[in-house]
Write a structure and sequence with these properties.
This protein is mainly α and about 140 residues long. It has helices spanning about 5-25, 35-55, 60-65, 70-95, 100-135; strands at about 1-5, 140. This is Hemerythrin-like domain-containing protein.
Length: about 140
């Protein structure tokens, strides 16, 4: 089981990675740097695991709630997760192919910023809307 505090910690770690990666990926010469590649891989892994966990726990928790409005929010939350997972999967397949040419770097940079924006919006939505719903229902642990 994971507590809401642990999920919030995961979100904070994802936020931190986004902040650092936004700076690093601007510099074309760093794109193929092994440290940057490791950090991008770490970001990919953390986000993917977080999305998978949410689907199996938070979504499941909210769909069991007796309030139909909360179930509706859970459904919207679930659909947005599917959309992000699809886009994120495509992003993960492509990012290592960046050759360092300016055109490829620019495409990588733009796609990275787009996916990071979506992930950041998702994390913010969780903190501001989803976690409070779970906390209000007096559920302090999410089933795994």
């Amino acid at each position: 089981m994971y507590s809401i505090d642990e999920l919030k910690k995961q979100n904070h770690e994802i936020d931190d990675l986004i902040a650092v990666l936004r700076v690093l990926i601007k510099e074309e010469s760093l794109i193929n740097n092994p440290l940057v590649c490791n950090m991008v891989s770490q970001f990919n892994e953390k986000v993917w695991m977080h999305l998978v966990f949410e689907e199996k726990s938070i979504y499941a928790e909210l769909t069991l709630h007796p309030n139909p409005e909360i179930k509706k929010i859970a459904d919207i939350f679930h659909r947005s997760a599917k959309e992000i997972k699809n886009e994120f999967s495509a992003y993960m397949r492509l990012w290592c192919l960046v050759s360092g040419s300016e055109r490829h770097h620019q495409a990588f940079f733009e796609q990275s910023c787009t996916i990071m924006d979506k992930v950041k919006q998702r994390v913010t939505y969780e903190v501001e809307n989803i976690f409070p719903l779970i906390e209000e229902s007096e559920t302090t642990y999410v089933r795994v």
